[in-house]
Design a protein that fits this description.
Keywords: Membrane, Transmembrane, Transmembrane helix. InterPro entries: DUF6804. By secondary structure, the protein is mostly helical. It has one domain (2-102). Helices cover 81% and strands 0% of the residues. The chain contains four helices and no strands. It has helices spanning 2-18, 25-48, 52-65, 75-102. The chain is globular, with a radius of gyration of 14 Å.
Length: 103
């Protein structure tokens, strides 16, 4: 399952970083749908691992990125959220790999 989570986190981080570019509006809608589904799945996996911190983080991110009731943060603030979220996803991969190597 660890590889599956990496296969979700890396492409999602890339999509979020691509949001920094001037893309068509449909791309941002696509990213919101992908983020909702991805964060929902990551939240479910966190629940299965009994990791309450990650569960709360991923549920919050799923709600923030959901495409149905848009949260208007403005482009600059959304860019900051995208970068922070992408960095968090990538750091969580490295952190899990270090923990697994230690075991």
């Amino acid at each position: 399952m660890k590889n599956n989570l990496t296969l979700i986190k890396i492409p999602l981080a890339i999509l979020l970083l691509l949001c920094l570019l001037d893309m068509p509006y449909g791309f941002y809608e696509f990213v919101r749908f992908v983020a909702l589904i991805s964060f929902g799945f990551l939240a479910y996996q966190s629940k299965e691992k009994k990791d309450k911190t990650e569960l709360i983080i991923f549920i919050s991110l799923a709600l923030l990125f959901q495409p149905f009731f848009k949260i208007a943060l403005g482009r600059t603030l959304w860019n900051i959220v995208d970068v922070i979220t992408a960095i968090y996803l990538l750091i969580s991969i490295v952190k899990k790999q270090k923990i697994n190597k230690a075991l």
